[in-house]
Amino acid sequence: MSSILVLGGTGFVGRVVCEHLAERCNSGQITVPTRRAAHGNAVRLLPTVQVVQGNVHDEATLVRLVAGHDAVINLVAILHGSPAAFDHVHVQLPRRLAQACRDAGVRRLLHVSALGVGKDVASAPSNYLRSKTAGEHVLEQAGLQLTMFRPSVIFGAEDAFLNLFAKLQALAPVMPLAGSDARFQPVWVDDVARAIVTALDRADTIGKTYECTGPSVYTLSELVRLAGRWSGHERPQIPLPKFVGRLQALAMELLPGQPLMSRDNVDSMRLPNIASGQLPGLAALGITPTALEAVAPGYLGRQHGRARLEKLRAGAGRE
User: Do residues 304 and 231 lie in contact, with contact meaning Cβ atoms separated by under 8 Å?
Assistant: First the structure.
C-alpha cells in the first residue's frame, strides 16, 4: 500500500507514525490533514509526506480526503471534554470515516482505540471509555478491512503524561494525587507506531485488535515518583480519597485552558489500564516492548538539565 491517509498525523503519536511510514514508503504518498497549517510543520519535511489543510470533522472534506488512498489510519482522539465532545470525536468521526471509506472504495482502515474498552458501552466508567467503546462498535459493523489497537498510556519525549508530572513536581513542594493506586502498563510511542505500520502490510491482522502495552505494570503513584526522580524533582505524595480526588479534578476543570486532570480522567482510572491477556499484543507483530526505564530517564533528565541551565542564566542576568 503506497498511498496512506493519516488522520491525527500532527499529534504526539501521529508524528512518530508518520516518521515510520516515511521510512517504509520510498515511493507513494502519505497525506496528513490539519485544520491549522502551522500544526503540520513537525511532519511537513518528512519524505513523501504531504500536509493539506482541512477539517476532518466536515463530511464533505473527509470524503474528498479519503478518495484516492489505499488505506486510512485514524489517530484522532481527545482526553478532555463534554459527553457531546467525546461523541463527536470518538463516535461520529469513525462513523463518517467508515462511510467515506465505503463511498471511495477504500477498504483498509487502522484505528487506534484505548485499553479499557469492552463489549458494553453502558458499563464503561467514563465518557472517554464509553465513547471509545461506541466508536469501536461503529467500525466493527462497517464491513471494512479493520485493524484496531488499544494502547495503555503512551510515553515518549513529547508525552503529556510523565512530562506533566515532572513539571508539576518542579513547581510544587508536595503532590496531592487522585487515583494513586490506579494501574498502568505504559508503552513507548515508537512501539505503538511500529505496530501500526507493521499491521498495515499484513493481511493476517485484518479483523484483529491488538493490546499495545509495555513490559511492566506500575501504579500511578510509582509513575509519578519515577517522573519526579528522573527529572530531578521527586516530591512527597499525598494520596487523595476518591471523593477528594474528584473535587480536585473539578477545580482543575474550572481553570482556563485544557485541564491537567478532569473528573472523567479520574473515572477512567477505576479500570486497570493493563493488558487483559485475551487479545494479541505487540509480540504478535514481532515487536519486543521497550521498558519505561530504557527511555524515560533520558528525555526527562534532558529537560531537567535545560531547566537548570535556564535558571543559571536567569540568575546571571540579575547580577
Answer: yes
Model pTM? 0.92
Report the 3 state secondary structure along 101-135. Answer: HHHHCCCEEEEECCCCCCCCCCCCCCHHHHHHHHH
Contact 1, 201 (CB under 8 A): yes
Task: Tell which phi-psi region holds residue 86, choosing left (phi > 0), alpha (psi between -120 and 50) or beta.
Answer: alpha
CB atoms under 10 Å from CB of 158, counted, come to: 14
- Report DSSP letters for 231-298, one per residue: HT----EEEEPHHHHHHHHHHHHTSSSS-SS-HHHHHHTTS-BS--SSS-BGGGGT-PPPPGGGTHHH
CA 159 to CA 29: how far, in whole Å? 27
Half-sphere exposure of 191 (CA within 13 A, CB side): 30
The rounded distance, in Å, linking the Cα atoms of 213 and 316 is 45
- What is the rounded distance in angstroms from the CA atom of residue 3 to the CA atom of residue 25? 9
- Structural domains of the chain in order of their starting residue, each with its CATH number: 3-157+187-212 (3.40.50.720)
Q: What is the pLDDT of residues 121-154, one digit of tens each?
A: 878 999 999 999 999 999 999 999 999 999 999 9
pLDDT for position 41: 83
Grid cell of 311 as nine digits: 535558571
